[in-house]
Amino acid sequence: MRIGEVAARAGVSVRALRYYEEQGLLVAERSASGQRHYPPGAVDRVRFIQNLYAAGLGSKAVLRILPCMEHGVLTDEMHERLLAERARVQVQLDELTATRDKLDDVIRAGQAHRRA
């Protein structure tokens, strides 16, 4: 796949894909004319990278995590790192869930007030 197709399918900009390449997160082969060509799994990989970024991980942390996801090889250090990242993400989820629940309460109270 060419860069524009990967970007469109993954819902990211072409610039983001170039950045991922610069960071070593994504690899593309180059044609004789210099065009990037990505393997079939590139879209899923980009989406996973985006999810890791959305969870607050930086490119260096993502770079350390990706080999585990691809090869299933997990050193003790990486296992600890993944557990720590998972715990951090869980805290974020818990906080977001609490925020959503509070918003639901406000919405219900507002709706009750509007009906009265």
Automatic annotation (TrEMBL):
It comes from the Bacteria. InterPro entries: DNA-bd_dom_put_sf, MerR-type_HTH_dom, MerR_fam. CDD domains: HTH_MerR-like_sg3 (cd01282). Keywords: DNA-binding. PROSITE patterns: HTH_MERR_1 (PS00552), HTH_MERR_2 (PS50937). Gene3D superfamilies: 1.10.1660.10. Pfam families: MerR_1. SMART domains: HTH_MERR (SM00422). SUPFAM superfamilies: Putative DNA-binding domain. Residues 1-68 form the HTH merR-type domain. The keyword Glycosyltransferase does not apply. One of its GO terms (molecular function) is DNA-binding transcription factor activity. This is DNA-binding transcriptional MerR regulator. It comes from Cellulomonas cellasea.
